[in-house]
Specification:
The chain has about 180 residues and is an all-alpha fold. The chain has eight helices and no strands. The protein has two domains: about 100 residues, RNA polymerase sigma factor, region 2, helix turn helix motif (Rna Polymerase Sigma Factor, Chain: A), CATH 1.10.1740; about 70 residues, Arc Repressor Mutant, subunit A. About 75% of the residues lie in helices and about 0% in strands. It is globular. About 10% of the residues have low confidence.
Length: about 180
Amino acid sequence: MTDTEIVQLMLDERHQNTGLRQLMASYQERLYWVIRRIVESHEDTDDVLQNTFIKAFKNIGRFEARSSLFTWLYRIATNEALSFKKSRIRKAVQTLPESGMVLAGGSASNGATEDQVLEKLDAALRTLPERQRQVFEMRYYDELSYEEMGQMLNLSEGALKASYHHAAKKIEQFLVETSTH
């Protein structure tokens, strides 16, 4: 079923549920992984994904088809995930003890397992500013073009390339520094 057909079903009150089921069947897995990289927990990802589809369902009349349906959904999912993450961070900061946080350090041996490498990459990604992390993940994991990312984020291709370049350099530096200590 095409995006246009899905949107038409969702706009028709008699077929809204069928349209929503088609929308979910078509985009649930891709959006799950977009959200998962931001919120990091399966349970939280499922909650944010559900909120994403609810918001899309309620606002389908605002979809203008200037971009693809996935681009529109990606933007909703990203905004929902970032809002969720910010609210969790605010709650965590409010409950931190006055004594401060203790950061655990450590390094993997040169014969690091795949899980250890993925953990290091995830740790490196967490050190990035939110925008750089988002651009890196969109390009590296989602394999989106700069043009697609520009539509989703309302940024120029040059700004996106710069963000990706800076993110890649910071990740590389993080990996080098943590593997030598």
